[in-house]
Specification:
The chain is an alpha+beta fold. The protein folds into 3 domains: 69 residues, no CATH class; 89 residues, PDZ domain (Pdz3 Domain, Roll); 182 residues, 2-enoyl-CoA Hydratase, Chain A, domain 1 (Alpha-Beta Complex), CATH 3.90.226.10. Helices cover 29% and strands 27% of the residues. The protein has 10 helices and 19 strands. The strands form 4 sheets. Strands 3, 4, 5, 6, 7 and 8 form a 6-stranded antiparallel sheet that branches. Helix 1 runs parallel beside helix 3, helix 7 runs parallel beside helix 8 and helix 8 runs parallel beside helix 9. The radius of gyration is 23 Å and the shape is globular.
C-alpha cells in the first residue's frame, strides 16, 4: 500500500498542462478501480508488490528511455557502476521504442569479446523475451554470479537472422585509459578513453604528461569509440585539458540549480598541438560532450561516425525503501547551443567503421589508420 501511495504522490507532482487537478484525481480513482478488479478477477493471483513496482516503472519509462526505478537489491548493486568496478557482462544499454538497445560494449569485457556491438537490439536474455520488460528488469536478468554464463539473442542492423551469444559473467574492472605512441616515425600520441569514471581525469592527465616527455610529439589521436559516457564532471575536467577558455557545456533543467554553464580554465595541456578525436555510434553522453565541445571550438578534427545522441543528465535519487530512481533532470547543450539529443555529434570527416577491433596498432582499424594519415597533410 505504501508503494501505491508513492505512486499517487508521484503522479500528483508531475507538471502537466493536459489535466486539471480534478482530472488527475479522477485518473487516480480509475487506477485504484483497475487494481481492485485485477485483485478480484484476474486469472492468476498477482503479487501486489511486483505489480506496483511495474506501475512505478511505467510512469518513469513514459517520460524518456533513461528514467527507471531500481528496487533495493538492484540499487545497491548499481552503486558500484561509476566507481570503475562492477559485475556483469560489460555493456551499457538503453531503451528504444520499448526494446533494449546496446549503447556500447565496454572494451576488454565479456560482451565486447563475444562480439556484441553498439546498436544491437537485445531481444532475448536466456529464455526470457525482453519485449515488455523495463530497462532495470533487463539489467537484473543479465547480472548474476561471476563465472556463470548467459545466452543473449540480438537483432543487428542489416543482418536478417537473429544472432546468439553465450557470454560468461565476470567482475568488470574498468581501466578507463590506455595510451601509447602509435607511430614512432610520426610521433603521434594515442589515448583510448573507454569511459568517464571517477578516476579517468587523473589517468588521462598522467598519459599526457608521459607523452610530453617526448619533445618530438606532433599531435594526438583521442579514441572515444564505444565510450558510453559516465560522469559529467569528468567530461568537463578532461575537455578542459585541451581548451584555454570558452564554454565547455551547459545544462538546462526545470530547476534553477540544474541550469548551469561550465567554462574552460586557462591552460592547454598539449600547447595547441593538433588533435584528432575518433567517435562512432557507441560514443554517448559524456563522450559526446567532449567531442562536441572540441568540435565547436575548432580545437580538434572529429573523425568516424555520428555518435549515439544521448543529450540528457540523469540523477540517482535514493528512496526510503532502499531502492532508487534514475531520473532525467536536465539536458545538456554544446557551446554552439545545439542539443545532441537523438541527433548525436556529426564527425568532420565521415569514415565508416570497417573491421575495427579497437586494439592499439591494429592494421584492420581503418578509422585509426585514416587519422594517422591526417598528420601527413
Amino acid at each position: 500500500m505504501r508503494k501505491f501511495l508513492f505512486f499517487l504522490i508521484f503522479i500528483l507532482n508531475l507538471n502537466t498542462t493536459a489535466f486539471s487537478k480534478n482530472d488527475l484525481y479522477e485518473k487516480i480513482d480509475l487506477f485504484g478501480e483497475v487494481i481492485e478488479n485485477i485483485k478480484k478477477d484476474y486469472v492468476n493471483e498477482v503479487d501486489q508488490a511486483e505489480m506496483m513496482d511495474s506501475a512505478i516503472n511505467g510512469v518513469l519509462q513514459s517520460l524518456d528511455p533513461y528514467s527507471a526505478y531500481m528496487p533495493p537489491e538492484l540499487f545497491k548493486e548499481m552503486q558500484t557502476d561509476t566507481k570503475g568496478e562492477f559485475g556483469g557482462l560489460g555493456i551499457e544499454i538503453g531503451m528504444e521504442a520499448g526494446v533494449v538497445k546496446v549503447i556500447s560494449p565496454i572494451d576488454d569485457t565479456p560482451a565486447a569479446e563475444a562480439g556484441i556491438k553498439a546498436g544491437d537490439y537485445i531481444v532475448k536474455i536466456g529464455k526470457e523475451q525482453v519485449q515488455g520488460k523495463s530497462l532495470m528488469e533487463a539489467v537484473k536478468l543479465m547480472r548474476g554470479p561471476v563465472g556463470t554464463s548467459i545466452d543473449l539473442t540480438v537483432r543487428r542492423k542489416n543482418v536478417k537472422k537473429p544472432l546468439e551469444f553465450k557470454i560468461t559473467r565476470r567482475i568488470i574492472e574498468v581501466r578507463s585509459v590506455n595510451s601509447e605512441i602509435i607511430s614512432k616515425e610520426k610521433n603521434i600520441g594515442y589515448i583510448r578513453l573507454k569511459s568517464f569514471n571517477e578516476n579517468s581525469d587523473k589517468q588521462f592527465l598522467k598519459s599526457i604528461k608521459n607523452f610530453k616527455k617526448n619533445k618530438k610529439i606532433k599531435g594526438y589521436v583521442l579514441d572515444l569509440r564505444n565510450n558510453p559516457g559516465g560522469l559529467l564532471t569528468q567530461a568537463i575536467n578532461i575537455t578542459d585539458f585541451f581548451l584555454d577558455d570558452g564554454e565547455i557545456v551547459s545544462t538546462k533543467g526545470r530547476n534553477v540549480s540544474e541550469t548551469r554553464k561550465f567554462f574552460a580554465r586557462k591552460g592547454d595541456e598539449v600547447k595547441g598541438k593538433p588533435i584528432v578525436v575518433l567517435i562512432n555510434n557507441g560514443s554517448a553522453s559524456a563522450a559526446e560532450i567532449f567531442a562536441g565541445a572540441l568540435k565547436d571550438h575548432k580545437r580538434a578534427i572529429i573523425l568516424g561516425e555520428s555518435s549515439y545522441g544521448k543529450g540528457s543528465v540523469q540523477s540517482i535519487i535514493p528512496l526510503k525503501n532502499g531502492g532508487g530512481i534514475r531520473l532525467t533532470i536536465s539536458k545538456y547543450y554544446l557551446p554552439s547551443g545545439k542539443s545532441i539529443s537523438e541527433v548525436g555529434v556529426t564527425p568532420d570527416i565521415l569514415v565508416e567503421e570497417i573491421g575495427a577491433d579497437f586494439k592499439i596498432k591494429s592494421e584492420k582499424d581503418n578509422q585509426l589508420n585514416y587519422a594517422i594519415k591526417l598528420f601527413n597533410s
